[in-house]
Amino acid sequence: MTQTSPNNLSITSNSAAYVRVLASLTSVVIICAALFLVARLTTWLSYPRPESIANNSDLWRALWTGFRFDMAVVIRANLLGLLISICCIPLPAMASHFGWLLNRYWGGLILVIATWASILNFSYIGFFNRPIDSFAYVGLNYGAATIWPTVISMDPYGLRLLVGLSVTALTLWSYRKIGEKIIELIGFVHVKRIPFFTLAILLPLMFVMLLGRGTVSTFPLSQRHLIVSSETAVNNIVPNGIVALYYGYKEFKQSKTISPALDAEGRELFKTFYGESPLDQPLFSQFFTQTPRSSFLEKNPPNVVFNLIESMGNALLLPTFNPGIDLAGQMRQHLNEDYYFNRFLPAHDDTQKSLMSLMVNTEYSTISYSSHQHIPLQTSVARVFKKSGYRTVFVYAGFEGLSNRSDYLKTQGFDEFIGAHQLRERYPTMESSVWGGEDKFVFEETIKQLLDNNEYDRPLFIVTLTVTNHPPYQLPKHHNLTLSPPVDRLSAKLQDLPPESLDTYRYTNDQLGQFMSAVKNSRLKSNTIVAATGDHAIRGMSYNSAERLHELSVPFYLYLPASYRPSLQPDTNQVASHKDIMPTLYNAALSNARYPNLGRNLLAPKANEKYHNFAYHAEYLVIDERAYSKGGLGRQVTSEFMLAPSAIGVEKTSDRSRVYSQTIDWLTRFQLANGPAD
Fold first, then answer.
1. Quick one: pLDDT at residue 51?
2. With contact defined as beta carbons under 8 Å apart, do 501 and 538 qualify?
3. Please, what is the end-to-end C-alpha distance for the chain in angstroms?
4. DSSP code per residue over 369-438
5. What letters, b where the CB count within 10 A reaches 16 and e where it falls short, cover 581-601?
């Protein structure tokens, strides 16, 4: 009988350990693929009408692409452990045993991460209607003390926590049992060096590399493969939780990198955006325009108040979506009396992005706490009003340090920033929440600022930002609000939202309505312009695909004293967006004021508009009653602001609207590269 030398015995034992690692890796891949598939199917079934995309070939493409991402990400995560096991084959048995344990524990960690990343991604899609993205990492800036109460306020939080713990326990138990079976079935391996190298090392490595790339074509799987359809609902199910976390972080890191603003690039954007070549002069100033000269406005400059309301979605103001309860509350009277644009889109779907877009005309949402935070921008809204002789004030119900808003907005031209801490000092009865204070005192302070402004002998430009209608949806204790239970039709739309979200929505509308009544019942009625809109719509509600614009839309409300109103009735049924608010206010309040030419005056006849006759949202453009998604698919917009159920074909959007975001980006980069504003 042939005897086995100690050296050969070690190799045989190590080879067996390596084969066990291969089997263990296979089990990790299969379990993760099953977890990710269940998460995708659950996401799909949670849509209001999952059957509407069940027969869509894009759905099967999404599932297949998602499966390829699953294989790629799990194999890439385990590749180092596999290579270590290969290196351990010629080493003493102790090294091989270490390689086995390393792979087992690492595989278990991957399973835990896959479980919780899937639950997190599912919840994120349910609330934001998109997979985890850079905003999740931006949100970490708020701190655990703020984020945690917000997260646990969501209705299904407890159930999802229980599901996560149960799935984790079941997954790890199954993984442990599979590991025991692998050890039992794979004993010593009789090694014939060449066949073993070929069959057990070379071929598996080639197979692993192929699956890790996710494709046999020239380019491996990458972020561009996440878009497989023009339907957002379909694209949402492609990335698993780990992939979504990875690309979200990648976007977050890239957002901190500012590339140079080349003059040639800017001139090409100018020509495309305005439809004419720029003059052979310095370019940046040519992106600005001026309001008409008005002797009336020069003698009677009005106060201007712009209210940015947390989660003021427009759908809940409409009987179509909200029968039974009028959630406009005390604001309803003013919506009926004044200008109310109800086909209106926000710039973005989160507060920080919309705030930066409105206040400084930038899409760099992290700019307020980046290395560029100390550079004043000429595109700042406050700077336009200051140059026209205004005192500028920002009143915020939240904490001043959140995203460094206080210091940054003062850098951008606000003379005074009043946040939750100052409000608490001025109004000791104000309660505190995880986000700051109460909306009630934002409006009380604004009225006080307006009525006490005589000592400055300057008109006021005030911006307010509310926080009460934000998760965890806590009503102030002193409120006297009584709401009837929502009808079934509205309850069905709440999806992940607790019923308390309707209470805080109504509460803030009541406070805004009371503020408007106070303005109209005082001397401010004749010399104060007031505007209000939502930073974004309510997130987490359930809509079908035809209601996508309603899901995103916010109202735009505008009060003009009689002597400041235009001679012609403006078209309040036109589709417009955040980019048009400030140009409208500039033209209503300022004489001969220079401002960035990036939006249209909604009070002027639409036929007079040359450049800005489109509505802009980060995901959609609406041009001539057609909405275009990022994928370029056009859908008819009905008079009810719905998307027609059938696509009208893939058509190129106008060049002007297509480069809007690029134009803003270039203007920001130019200013950051060229230093402080004048």
1. 62
2. yes
3. 94
4. GSTTTT---TT-HHHHHHHTT-EEEEEESB-TTGGGHHHHHHHTT-SEEE-HHHHHHH-TTPPP-SSBS-
5. bbbbbbbbbbbebbbbbbbbb
Residue type (1 letter), 201 = I
Helix (H, G, I), strand (E, B) or coil at 623: strand
User: Which pair of structure tokens corresponds to residue 282?
Assistant: 């310095």
Q: Tell me the sheet residues that pair with 621.
A: 616, 628
Q: 173-201, pLDDT tens digit by residue?
A: 998 988 888 877 776 555 444 455 555 56
Angle, helices 157-185/93-128, rounded to nearest 10 degrees: 160
Query: Hey, is 305 helix, strand or coil?
Result: strand
Judged by phi (left if over 0) then psi (alpha if -120 to 50, else beta), residue 403 lies in left
The total number of residues written for the chain in this structure = 678
- Separation CA 391–CA 389 (nearest Å): 7
The residue type of 501 is S
What pLDDT was estimated at residue 172? 92
CA distance 157 to 616: 34
Whole-angstrom distance, CA of residue 423 vs CA of residue 445? 8
Parts of the chain with a pLDDT under 70: 1-14, 48-56, 139, 141-148, 150-155, 187-221, 224, 229-231, 254-257, 455-456, 484-485, 487-488, 607, 630-633, 645-655, 676-678
List alpha helices for 144-262, DSSP H: 144-152, 157-185, 193-196, 203-213, 232-236, 241-254
pTM: 0.76
Q: How many DSSP H helices and E strands does the chain contain?
A: 24, 15
Tokens of 385: 């009003």
Question: Under a CB-based contact definition with an 8 Å cutoff, are residues 481 and 475 in contact?
Answer: yes
- How many C-beta neighbours within 10 Å does residue 545 have? 17
- pLDDT, tens digit (0-9, with 9 covering 90-100), for 423-481: 999 999 998 888 889 999 999 999 999 999 876 689 999 999 999 998 888 888 877 77
